[in-house]
Amino acid sequence: MEDMHCGTSPIVGFRFTLSPMTNDFVEVIKGALEEVDTSAVRMHTDDVSTVIRGKQGHVFNVAKALALHTAKTGVHVALNGTFSAGCPGDSAGDAYLDKPDEQLNHDRTKQYVSSQFALYPMNHPDYMSVIYREIERAKERGVFNESMHDASGIHGDIHDVFDFYEEAFTHARSEDHRHLVMTVSMSINSPSHGGN
Amino acid sequence: MEDMHCGTSPIVGFRFTLSPMTNDFVEVIKGALEEVDTSAVRMHTDDVSTVIRGKQGHVFNVAKALALHTAKTGVHVALNGTFSAGCPGDSAGDAYLDKPDEQLNHDRTKQYVSSQFALYPMNHPDYMSVIYREIERAKERGVFNESMHDASGIHGDIHDVFDFYEEAFTHARSEDHRHLVMTVSMSINSPSHGGN
Asked: A99 and A10 in contact (C-beta within 8 Å)?
């Protein structure tokens, strides 16, 4: 109960499940974790999800690299996760804020992904304006797909999509409203994607 | 941009992805959708997720039935989704609020599940108190597993777990704070679950 006030730590977290829809799901997940350089983030896996925490740039870099590496196996993969910053209990793991900013995963292979996201700026009376502003940004960046209940569709090349997500996550929080949550569901190599 | 104010509709939505980790994922998903009675909710599937919307009791009943039916195939399944109520644009689909309250799926087969959830009461200055109150409720109900960054672990028999989730979702919103979001990640038949 001691962590009921929001912190000021710059730590970003991403708690996710990576679900390769294949009988070999264990090998696919292990392969991604072995091939991706995760040394710049704190990573912990339990029986439901994996969490990575550290500087924002590293968290997004590792998340994208895991998705991309898994995608290259060709199997249908779902990535579902929640990015968060600002609250609560964000004092743990601060060691990883000492890491150099230089990103460690550089694979630029093109890969179509279709995804949906939702922003939850906490304790913010005008949070809908924040959300609509970031949807406008998606349209400007050329990655907006469609509107829907409770989410917005974002698609395109994985690098453009993750660039947008990091930009939106940066701009949707502020000094006055530090606690931000962003959910992302991503579908890769789906049989529904057709010619994309 | 016309939907920037929160609604007063009692509609509950659940947007989710169901990911059977098997080469036969299409058959497993289709089988669940055929076997479960979804006639009391509006359902729409796109290339990333499925959304069900309607009266709260039906939405939770259908969500559990889909998870349980998929579980009975024995394959490892991940269910990731977001329950929401209260905002925005909740006027569409009101027809389903005419449905009788009687639930349509009654399978009581026991099934261990491990899951994690997070509550996001929107525009609520004291949202952390709401969250901690529902974590206390999980402990009282005997389904609390562990605390972690950005989520809380909930596990046990699927019926107890879903009963808790519906109860928490009910109590975490109020007349003054209608817009509530609850994310749930559930792991079923995981090789990590061991003797459970």
From this structure: no
